[in-house]
Design goal:
By secondary structure, this protein is of the alpha/beta class. The protein is built from four helices and seven strands; from the N terminus they run βαβαββααβββ. α1 crosses α2.
């Protein structure tokens, strides 16, 4: 199942804008989620400070994660149970946001040791990988790539959903 995004490019002028972009992505994922046969995987690519973690925080909030969504840079992975369902109603027991940050990854085996194959095979998972270009060969073919670039001034970010 391939999710087609109506929003392909977005210019963010603040953290709030980035989180609103993430909310729109979350809505589109949830609209298509029931037809998915495996995890929805988002691969985030961009320089330090380009807004990847801010995006994940907004995505988590839109999906119903309670509490703060923090970067798992030193832990590699954080799993959040979701409070919304694919239909937007009350949460389903197994629906999860799996947030992985591979910035400090030393080798592919570290991500495989997390149970990577099971994680991406589970249709109840929405998997977000920060620094996804470092593990490109491990990501499924239908990964949704989102590129984050610094804009012309300190607060502007250019966000792009790539095919």
């Amino acid at each position: 199942m391939k999710i087609i995004f109506r929003m392909q490019e977005f210019i963010s002028k603040s953290d709030k804008d980035t989180k609103n972009f993430a909310k729109k992505i979350a809505e589109q994922i949830l609209q298509s989620y029931g037809a998915c046969k495996q995890a929805v995987v988002l691969g985030l690519v961009g320089d330090l400070g380009a807004g990847k973690t801010t995006f994940v925080a907004g995505l988590g909030r839109a999906l119903g994660v309670k509490g703060r969504v923090l970067s798992p840079t030193f832990m590699l992975m954080r799993i959040h149970r979701l409070k919304v369902s694919a239909e937007g109603g009350k949460g389903e027991e197994g629906l999860k946001l799996v947030h992985i940050d591979v910035y400090r990854l030393n080798n592919f085996q570290e991500i495989l040791d997390l149970g990577w194959e099971k994680i991406i095979a589970d249709k109840n998972n929405i998997v977000v990988v920060e620094w996804a270009d470092k593990v490109r060969d491990l990501l499924p073919e239908n990964t949704i790539w989102i590129n984050f670039e610094h804009g012309k001034n300190e607060k502007v970010r250019n966000l792009q959903v790539l095919k």
